[in-house]
From TrEMBL:
The keyword Membrane applies. It comes from marine metagenome. Keywords: Membrane, Transmembrane, Transmembrane helix. This is Uncharacterized protein. The keyword Transmembrane helix applies.
Amino acid sequence: MPIRDIFLAILVPIILGFGFVIAKPAMDQLPPILL
């Protein structure tokens, strides 16, 4: 596999993981209608 493909394969789950970590406290504090 090219290095670029390996980098993307690692980067995408990291971005999704950080998105979930950030969204979890936001969903606790904001009413769902605002999201």
